[in-house]
Hints:
Blueprint: H1 2-37, H2 57-64, H3 66-97, H4 104-112, H5 119-130, H6 136-145, H7 150-153, H8 163-188, H9 192-200, H10 205-216, H11 218-233, H12 237-242, E1 248-251, E2 254-257, H13 262-271, H14 275-307
Helix pairs in contact: 1-14, 2-14, 3-8, 3-11, 3-13, 4-8, 5-8, 11-14, 13-14
Amino acid sequence: MAIRTxxxxxxxxxxxxxxxxxxxxxLVFPIFYSFYLSFLGAPTxxxxxxxKFVGLKNYVRIIQDWQFWSSLVVTAFYALISIPSGIIVxxxxxxxxxxxxxxxxxFRSAFFLPNILxxxxxxxxxxxxYAPKFGVLAQISTALLGENNFFNTTGLLGSPYTALLAVIFxxxxxxxxxxxxxxxxxxxxxxxxxxxxxxxxxxxxWEKFYLITVPLLRPIIFFxxxxxxxxxxxxxxEIYAMTAGGPQxxxxxxxxxxxxxxGYYLYKQFDAGNYGYAxxxxxxxxxxxxxxxxxxxxxxxxxxxxxx
Length: 308
């Protein structure tokens, strides 16, 4: 028996070894190497070989970097708007398509399709839609409002007051299909007996939704909040494709990008050759993500305990 168990273990590790090698080379090693880089200074020739040890200077620099903290504020606005919007739209689609609607399979596939498209492709498409003069939105607004209108002259991505909202709108539509699938799976696992008992007690449709459906969907909502926070802190491709961090807005005498989220600011530091500083920023963002996730888990556990 022991020989067979040992043989099975060896065979199992043999099948797992290709994945473990790739996992170690492309995930584990970069994690530890980037932590090592966070203690090195910027090279003079964009070469990793010429970086010198600077200790905690990169982390001290982050504390004093006003641009980084302003990018976190922009990221917070991005998350506070995009996460609730994504949850609401996804849940609305799931509730609509959970009924006996003609052609619901087609609509489910149609709404999920944008989720599998590359983020860069989606960003470029929406940038073309929003583009003044030649974009689809500009053409429609010109036909309805004439040439001298906001959508045709400035465009949604050209104004610091609408650029971030325009990006959020595009990304909400892109990701709504994934959330819709999650909510659909959860809705179909809710027993009909629960709703029948509520009907007997005289509960209205709103009461059934608020007191039965939403509490039973809480694990999915929590999952979407956590993944939304991580996605907001990692947001880069959509910003790169649609706005490149702009347009600029002046706050406190300093010019900042109205869509320059933390992920894009990290990219700019890396692109400028500040590899050590960029690595330090990435670990600060990791700590922030873990902290927010921990707090969210504690709050959810407390609410669940209070209801019991």
